[in-house]
Amino acid sequence: MFSSSILIHGDFRYGLSVKEHIYHHLKEAYQLPKIPFLFILYLLSKVFGDILAEKLFTVIILFLSLIWVYLAHKYFLSKVFSELRNGFLSFCAFAGTIVFLFNPWTINKTHHHYWLVFALAASYLMLAKIDELLHNSLSIKKILFLSLLFSAVASAVQAIIIYLGFMLLIYLVTNLIIDRTKFLTEIYSKRKSLLFILIFIFLLNTFWLMPFLSIIFEGKATPNYPIEPQNVNFLSKGGNILFVLQAINAWPWAENCLSALTDYTLFFLPLSLWKTISIVLLFIISFCILKNKDLIKNKYISFFIILFLTSVLFSCGTKAPFIGKLYEWIFLNMPLGWVIRDPYKNTGVVIICIAFFYSVSIYLLFQQKIQFKILLITCLLFLPFIWGWPILTGDLNGHLKFLTYPKDLDKCLNYLQKNNKSNYSILWYPKGKPIFFYHDIPELSSSSLNTLSLTPEIDFYIETLIKKGDIEALRRLFNLLGVKYVILRTDLNPYYRQFYSSLFTTIKKAKILFPKTLRISYNSENFTIFENPSSVRIFHLINNFVLDSSPYFLEMVKIAENNLTTITSVKKSGFRKWEISLYSHNPFLLVFSKPFDRAWRAAIYKDNKLVDQERALSILGIVNGFYIPYRGKLSIKIYYCPAIWYILFKIGAVISVLSFLYIVYRIVS
To answer: Rounded distance, CA 559 to CA 186, Å?
Structure first.
């Protein structure tokens, strides 16, 4: 916790400063529910600094998750055992919370994707609060708390469907089967209160709901991976029921690096104990509950049994008995089917059920008049620690490691921020790969600058030019992309030399070649900044091109300076606005050397009249381009038009703040 190293965890696989962490999340609409919680991270960074703040934030997220699971356990236990004393109720709920904390799934997800653990706990408590609302009176504080829980659920966007939605569906089905008339009567009698709650939950969460709904209706709520059978089938390969019950049905992310894999073994002499002990816990739970016939008739126990059985099936993914094909069909054909791509995420609901049944079993054992009761209960309390222990023997499949932030990177970034003008772009070369000690840290650290990210094709093209020693082609490419600074990375990890021997050679050649066309302006142990001495322009005009065919764009580089159109003036008229005057003989491509963003627009004027507007095209997969089909004297205004979700976020934020102030006023008054 208090070391000077960055704790790397999660899908990031690299260290992040707090600023980078927040920027990384909030550049997408579906990440907006995280805002209330990232504000805590921001405050922690101001008090403790970035490295400690990131670690503390992980602890706080996990602590809140445990508190919420504990409260939900306590509520549902009170509905099952009405005679249970409050002190003993708390003890049983706490025991179940330990199971939720110390198991392979939670430990894995805490470091791999802690927002999922957070969202699962929020979903569980939200279900408890919804049930409580059907049986008790409404209060303003409950509305505020439910709104916070809903935002926490949405912090991992899939959780709205795979956790909260799934639990609510099973809850409704169970109540309609067991207690239909009474349940429907309760809902009808509370209809006005429930409608009031829904309205205020929506208003308090408008800051993310409006943008989120807009991207769904626009059809943009799609993942960055292909929706194909192989995708979900591959992640379901551990989907057998035994693995699900052990909570180890995950895809081994580091399968090509065996030293990183978690070893789920615990040997005593020649015996492998873990595979047996991990099932003993579930066996004892099942025995305690099934032995009590009156308990099974309880509506809440029935709900958790149905929830447990269905969640086990869904955690098997496409390997599930009876419903495997249905699971695949939902993934391939339903509008939001992609949220169930990874069945291991569904296993969180299985863990919730096992944790609750564990709390119930502790109570039932205390009620039994048997010999060695205290010893048996002590063993039962110890079992969760054995269940969770093996996952701590590995590095969570490559998702957990410590890293020291490169000291010379700060100096390198300070130099870039001081000297880099907004008109120019910077390029890290080579792009982040496991070969580097610091992986993607440099590119992320400079995200506030005009950092270009290379596509694989252009990366290969540059590598080819370096091997050929083609200085002139490199210069043309850098000029076309508006690159003023190239930072050559040398933070190489010798361990990967055998896997990336070609790249090692390319970097050595680049050290020799770059100074022939670029000027060294900064040098340190891990990074060398080369400055492009050419008169780098932010706009280029190209007459010969083929749209939507990236291989031809490589040829386009060679003729970038041989065009029939001339720019007469370029004027920056605002923070994100440029005005260009030019004379064109033929249709042309206007290349705008800033990192590609669909929000860039070009307004085309002829004879002082607006004749057309063009959206940005992706040029080389890196920068922006505008196809201009007009001839003659033209005036083109380049401006940035934020995505609709960003505008809706601002409107929604105002509504959310006003709603929050109204709620606070009601509480105070």
So the answer is: 74
Phi, psi angle pair for 579, to nearest 5°: -120, 130
- pLDDT for 96 beyond 90: yes
Distance, in Å, from the CA atom of 9 to the CA atom of 564, rounded to the nearest integer, reads 53
**Helix, strand, or coil (residue 405):** coil
CA 144 to chain centre: 26
pLDDT digit string, tens, across residues 494-512? 766 666 778 788 888 998 8
Tens digit of each residue's pLDDT (9 = 90 or more) over 513-563: 999 889 998 888 888 999 988 766 778 777 655 544 444 444 554 444 445
539-643 folds as Immunoglobulin-like (2.60.40)
DSSP structural state of residue 642: -
CA dist., res. 266 & res. 387, Å (int):
10
Q: Say how far apart CA 93 and CA 148 lie, in whole Å.
A: 22
Residue 561: what pLDDT?
46
Q: Indicate the range of 31-35, 92-96, 258-262, 378-382 predicted with least confidence.
A: 258-262
Enumerate residues 6+ apart whose C-beta is below 8 A from 255. Answer: 261
Give the single-character DSSP code of 136: S
SS3 447: coil
Sorted by sequence, the CB contacts under 8 Å of residue 665 that are 6+ apart come out as: none
Angle at alpha carbon of residue 134, lines to 132 and 139, rounded to 5°: 70
DSSP 88-131: HHHHHHHHHHHHHHSSHHHHHHHHH-HHHHHHHHHHHHHHHHHH
| Angle, in degrees to the nearest 10, between helices 343-367 and 373-388 | 170
Report how far residue 379's alpha carbon sits from residue 583's, in angstroms, rounded to the nearest whole number. 85
pTM for the model stands at 0.79
DSSP 8-state secondary structure symbol assigned to residue 492: B
